[in-house]
Amino acid sequence: MYLGLRGDLASSTLDEHGRTLRYLKEYFGDDQVIGKITPLRARQFISWYRQREHRGKTLSAATANKLIRECRRIFREAVDCQLLRGNPFATIPQEKVGQAAWHLISVEEFGQLLESCPSLRWRGMITLGYCCGLGLGEVLHLTWSDIDFEKGLLRIARKRSGADGPEWTPKDKDMRLLPLPATARSARPGITISRSVLTSWVKPGRLSRLSCRIEGDHE
Known about the structure:
Blueprint: H1 2-5, H2 11-28, H3 39-50, E1 53-54, E2 57-58, H4 61-80, H5 107-116, H6 120-132, H7 136-140, E3 147-148, E4 153-156, E5 176-179, H8 182-185, H9 195-201
Antiparallel strand pairs: 1-2, 3-4, 4-5
């Protein structure tokens, strides 16, 4: 029922909520009444999850923290719908996790990436991602109308469902215009024409986020 009420969420967020609901079902069972999940039982669930292994490795603190946040959001919805008086996950603390340093891809590494590209399509995607600091989803949902080579601008905007791809919304929801460096403009012959062609090459979620800054002259 919860997923059906959250049509306002992005598909990736719904997938994460669905995964969390499966863990809750695995631990509490099909017949568990949510009103009887106490803060103690919620903590026991998180402890159970922390002891699980994923692909032969113990779950990291960051992964456990993510589950706590997901559970809070799901049960907060139940509180808002007056199915619960309080959120049993509200007071569960998250583990402190130090933030890892970003690896900034150098110009030399960028060149090596381009040399390894199997086609002009890949060169176009890698070049735009690197030069404009785009996420994978942003690259995959670009169309020709988003790129103004004459003015040197790139538009990141919401896409409606259509023949060239499914509906998509940027993570920050807002449309934004980005300067298109000369390096990216020169990649024009390698840019794929439509979203449908791009998504047939790489499925969203299979690659890590490509978000880097370019070192040197942007012109």
